[in-house]
Design brief:
207 residues, alpha/beta, Aspartate Aminotransferase, domain 2, five-stranded parallel β-sheet, globular
């Protein structure tokens, strides 16, 4: 059992060691907003859950990495902001979690990114949008959806997206890796609000 490291900053015996950690020459921790041993361990555990029993294309165990955030919306917004740019479009379902919907409809358009909200259960429509619009750069799927519990075919949607090499992201919050592993179907990103299923008690906020 690892201890919980609650410090904000980390000290070193000499400036030389600190500079080596700052430069990336040596592994270490500086400030908990970037990372700390507890956060890093949590990242590794969630990644291990998502990768459990999955093989890569070479038949080897799938290796994943993850990043923790202060909330689920922190993780989701970081995903969009780090992968989309002006003139890009993101294809998503209409019945998203309210915070995600608000971010897509009110924030990303200010950055020149256009959200396209359609019925992702209509695979013909999804394929038409993806094949006919080269500006679609991401397919975002929340399944089961919050709070309506609508489910979507991750494998079928991913296969369509890959026809145009479009990135696929899945919000796996309501299923958790115990019930659903989107990486089995070739998705590129998985996000969680760990406040819900993964936490299980409603007494923490992270993503």
């Amino acid at each position: 059992m690892e201890p919980i490291i609650a410090t904000t900053t980390f000290s070193y015996d000499d400036p030389e060691m600190l500079m080596q950690v700052f430069s990336g020459e040596k592994k270490g921790f500086i400030y908990s907003r970037w990372s700390n041993p507890t956060i890093e361990l949590a990242e590794q555990k969630v990644a291990a859950l998502e990768a459990c029993s999955i093989k890569n294309t070479n038949g080897e165990p799938l290796k994943l990495s993850g990043k923790m955030f202060s909330s689920g919306m922190g993780a989701i917004s970081a995903l969009f902001l780090s992968t989309l740019k002006a003139s890009d479009k993101v294809l998503a379902q209409e019945n998203l979690y309210g915070g995600t919907s608000e971010f897509l409809l009110k924030i990303v358009p200010q950055l020149g990114v256009e959200p396209l909200m359609i019925d992702l259960n209509d695979l013909t429509l999804v394929e038409e949008r993806i094949l006919q619009d080269p500006q679609v750069k991401m397919l975002y799927i929340e399944t089961p959806s919050n709070p309506t519990i609508d489910c979507y075919d991750i494998e079928a949607l991913t296969n369509i997206a890959k026809l145009k090499n479009i990135k696929v992201a899945v919000d796996n919050t309501f299923a958790s890796p115990y019930l659903q592993q989107p990486f089995k179907y070739g998705v590129d990103f998985v996000v969680h609000s760990t406040t819900k299923y993964l936490n299980g008690h409603g007494n923490s906020t992270s993503g």
